[in-house]
């Protein structure tokens, strides 16, 4: 069992940053980690109704049109793809982020499987840290093809720690050495091993009992499990596991607001007092501030076309962007689902950018040609938060009064009169309140 602090740290590595003093019980935190890992391997695509029956799928290696296994297990989103395209390398150095390390380890396992033994079997593997404090003995026994881009790695594994290595693992290693089977070592930090073990334990319970792996004599005590490609959480998943609609400190149901600024909610006086040192500066800024309610749904003026925005959280593989577009846009061409709320009722910083007559692209030109005749000033604005889990286009024609109130702040206080940062609070599924008085410090994003 992982400690409470360990679970919170692993969740943070996945982009799930819960309140620093959350009072969620250990069982709930543990459940949230399990569900986040299921989402990271996009489990419901492959196993919508457990158990998994591997035998119904063909061998990955039988179809020569399939890519290498190392490429099949690779998953990344638009934001990461941009970093790679710019030549900036990996977002995290080795050991800095357990979840990123886990994804690299699974790619290492896939790479090892691409080079097979003379008889077609895959090399035995050990996944361990550099000091061999902890390790997982592992052998991929089969790889099945869910679809052209999704392999299912079926494997046997056993976990050991130094000074307490089981007799079965020792026998397994000796058997491989005696039979001159080269073993591949994949280096993995202790934290990423914790994530990998959690994945293997969860998936081991999802294999149909009718499936029988071909075990060697030394693998009788090894556990049968499977691995799927693992990638970053989508915006929807990030919102779901980060959502805190309660106390800004602990997440418990909030019963009151800060009496000075009215923007931050608490469950009781204890949490409010505990948060005062951190909240004091923001409270002074927001006290007595003027807020403007701004709706962000309504017909698009782009001749019936909805300006769909690709999010940096969108997964590049398995047509995730196209599927999200279909889900987000109704038959009328207008948005049917509100943006995910990752901030609950707490204030957060948004960037507001006004449309410019000099904006490039067909959609911008079409919009400007159609609207500048009646609205010579900016007629739309793009609003998003730092993670871009919230990103909307707002059209002036849908609520001219509210639009002008926010646009005036940008023109008078923003950079070159076209963009600035503001405090905001989600006040509804399709509305937000924006602070018009005190702006946050300029953000570097």
UniProtKB/TrEMBL annotation:
InterPro entries: TF_DEAF-1 (IPR024119), Znf_MYND (IPR002893)
Swiss-Prot/TrEMBL keywords: Metal-binding, Zinc, Zinc-finger
Pfam families per the UniProt record, alphabetical: zf-MYND (PF01753)
Domain of life of the source: Eukaryota
Presence of keyword Transferase: no
UniProt domain MYND-type: residue ranges: 247-283
PANTHER family the UniProt entry points to: DEFORMED EPIDERMAL AUTOREGULATORY FACTOR 1 HOMOLOG SUPPRESSIN (PTHR10237), MYND-TYPE DOMAIN-CONTAINING PROTEIN (PTHR10237:SF14)
Name of the protein in question: MYND-type domain-containing protein
Record organism: Mycena chlorophos (Agaric fungus)
